Amino acid sequence: MIQNVLILGAGSAGLLAAITLKKKLPALTVTVVRSSDIGVIGVGEGTTPATPVHLFEYLQLDKARFYAEAEPTWKLGIRLLWGPRTHFDYTFHQQLDGRYENLSLAPGFYADEDFRGVSIASALMEEGRAFPRHPRAGGAPLINAGFAFHIENLKLVATLEKIAAELGVTFLEGKAGGTERGPQGIAALLLEDGRRLAADFFVDCSGFRSELLGRALEEPFASYDRALFCDRAVVGGWERTTEPILPYTIAETMEAGWAWQIEHEHHINRGYVYCSQAISDEAACEEFLRKNPKAPTSPRVVKFRSGRYQRTWVENVVAIGNSAGFVEPLEASALMVVADTSQTLVQMFEETACAPGAAKRDLFNQIAGNYFDNIRDFLALHYKLNTRLDNAFWKHCREDTELGGLLPLLEAYRKMGPSLELQKLIPSSGNPYGLDGPLVMLLGNRTPYEARPHITGAERATWNNLRATLLTLAIKGLTVKDALHAIRSPQWRWQS
Length: 496
Ligand SMILES: Cc1cc2nc3c(=O)[nH]c(=O)nc-3n(C[C@H](O)[C@H](O)[C@H](O)COP(=O)(O)OP(=O)(O)OC[C@H]3O[C@@H](n4cnc5c(N)ncnc54)[C@H](O)[C@@H]3O)c2cc1C
What we know:
The protein is built from 15 helices and 21 strands. By secondary structure, it is an alpha+beta fold. It is globular and about 75 Å long. The mean pLDDT is 96. Residues 8-14, 33-35, 38-41, 43-47, 153, 175-176, 205-207, 209, 211, 233, 271, 302, 304, 321-323, 329, 332, 334-335 line the site of flavin-adenine dinucleotide (FAD). Residues 8-14, 33-35, 38-41, 43-47, 153, 175-176, 205-207, 209, 211, 233, 271, 302, 304, 321-323, 329, 332, 334-335 line the site of flavin-adenine dinucleotide.
């Protein structure tokens, strides 16, 4: 039976894992070891709705305190400067895989021509608003589910560390230098200063170093380099002056990859994710600075590899966060994987009175592997469909990107268009994007399809009225700045 858990690493993954374990299984002794010499990665600032759901619904953390200390802003989705349209938006609210009253076809057939305002979130994004106004609460923001956060990595880490310590998690400063093996896997972590830290169970949250899973246990790494070709990012931001705080992340097509724009309250964070086989670091920095003249003249270069370890739970070690795997940040999915993996681990501990056996471990590995692979396939689809630029890098993406489980969907789409029947081709287990995500990419990029069902004038008018209603509602909504002001007013009360 597991009683003592040692977590190596206090980045956002280690801290979220520590809080999740301690909050849900308070009898566990949870210790976190970290090295301030090594520090945290310092990038990873966009989330999906899974993060607020994990923090406030699953963990029931205090919203007022979290907002005051971590200072997140809201993200309704991603604006893609991608494909032939000026832009299209992928929101966290369903856009294209539902049915509408009085419309006989799937929504994608109507959205083909004009993609704006196809859901309330997409209408809000179109109008630069974060939330509609509450119909009864004096125009206050209606902060419902379906939003994500932009949060500065260091502020998130500082906030989570305080919360973990208050829950009873112990923190030790020190650099891991090796391990002592035992019959169950690892018996103890050995620190460079000579300390020996024994535990029943180890959670490897050491980031890309993957000290326990990768280095000590030598679990093989399965690269995603046939699907995702980017492996570096230049990162640099600037203090906000007159720029409005946008309620979304921008993903902009670049010569050899794409660039994010993430919106903090006082800071704009930009980063260019690129393929080092297609462009040198110097040329990537030059392109980045040319397009972002406010960025610092020596932006930071971060290297990464997309892929995952074959198993993320081996013997008595489970890896969570970048130590388990990493899928490049196009959909800002890493914290979602951390939350999901931490919940699965807790569930397996709960179901077995903290004595999970080999069957649970195998199931965990299958779940974690599927989840990573499904994210990989969705990101690969982004690259495969983007026709914005016609240079060697983007031709290579269109021709050679492997789509894994989404290939049958693309082939069927080319014939059937955005039919809801395509749902049957979506790998269902551990798929965070459903049919909506791929449909938004296909429609957004204007991927050609054969089927052209007749749309009557009446149906076209109904569709346009629906969108116009949403856009009218959205324009009366609150900007991020207005909504931040509202939640900081003395009258504001968070709903639990
Ligand atoms: C370019 C880029 C952009 C990204 N964008 C996003 C995004 O938008 N959204 C998102 O969710 N994620 C993003 N990520 C991923 C993001 O980095 C992670 O989600 C998140 O920060 C978790 O990191 P981590 O805790 O796994 O690792 P880290 O932050 O690297 O933490 C590792 C911890 O382990 C400790 N450690 C390591 N080795 C030792 C040792 N030997 N001894 C003692 N301690 C040790 C370190 O001190 C540190 O505390 C991005 C990543 C990259 C590379």
